[in-house]
What we know:
Layout: H1 4-8, H2 14-25, H3 33-40, H4 43-59, E1 63-66, H5 74-77, E2 85-90, E3 100-104, H6 111-124, E4 129-132, H7 138-148, E5 152-156, H8 170-179, E6 181-184, H9 194-206, E7 210-213, H10 222-231, E8 235-238, H11 249-256, E9 260-261, H12 265-272, H13 290-297, H14 301-313, E10 317-320, E11 324-327
Parallel strand pairs: 3-4, 3-7, 4-5, 5-6, 7-8, 8-9
Antiparallel strand pairs: 1-2, 2-6, 10-11
Amino acid sequence: MVPRSWLELLLLSHAQRRPFVQAMLERARPPGLVATLDAVRPAAQRARWADSLLRRCERSAIDLITLDDPRLPPTLRHLHDPPPVLFVRGDLALLTAPRRLAIVGSRRATAPGKRMAEALARQLALDVVVVSGLAYGIDAAAHQGTCVENGSPVGVVGTGLDRVYPKGNAQLHGRVGELGCLVSEYPPGVTARPYHFVARNRIVAALSHGVVVVEATMRSGALSTVDFALQMSREVMAVAGCVEEANAQGCLQLLRDGATLVRHADDVREAMGWEVPVEATDLPERPMTPEEVARQWQTSLVVALAGLGQLELVGIVERVDGGRYRGVPRRAPGG
């Protein structure tokens, strides 16, 4: 049973609750908390609200993870303003998976930027949990790439999990929940507010081992994710763009400040110290199913698929009709 004391903190603003959170992590009932809560809502009303919230979450298959729950990634406890409760729908184990990467960027992304985000996610999705914010643009493209490969997406949203924002991402929202999980610090019923999205970005950063920014203006909200990541000593990476493009300026500044340049998924793996799942092994030009490749490489289907994705990225193999793969014909010298 979720302790009601953690739920009641959700009735307070971020500023109001912050002084009480650390004391509760230390198993203490902080002085002044009851009086502060009483000023917001009487005790009887709080009890009814908490019971109603728990029933609503149960009906919607939403798990509640409090800040002292061992299933919570420790980095969330170290935030300046940690969420008292996370609401999660889907696979909780993904929140503590060994390889978690945030791919973020502009909502008003260019077509090349969206293609880059989707390609990165596709090539990483088979052994990396891809975290993003389910916004339009780069976030959506990263989740789409992950879903295409039936990977493990984690979508962090700025509303209750029973709400979809933006509405245009409704289908993607559902797919992310099916394949991976959806995460929010807001109870069911809460609608989008502008300040929710910067708050969401700190959770994106805390759930990830590294952050890749694909496109960002100098005022992009994605850069707040970078700020949170740097506070937690996370690896920051960026994709370069044309110096004349506004959407490239944030990434170019990050690179100038020391972020790692990302051209493709191998750059991410190198920066993070993540090995490619399989050695670069050429395939014959005869199309082969992933199952046939796995048998040839004497490995599992999951590892074979991850390796094929990497080899496709660097142009050694190509995917053909029917989900099969073949080696790319080599050019003759001088050809």
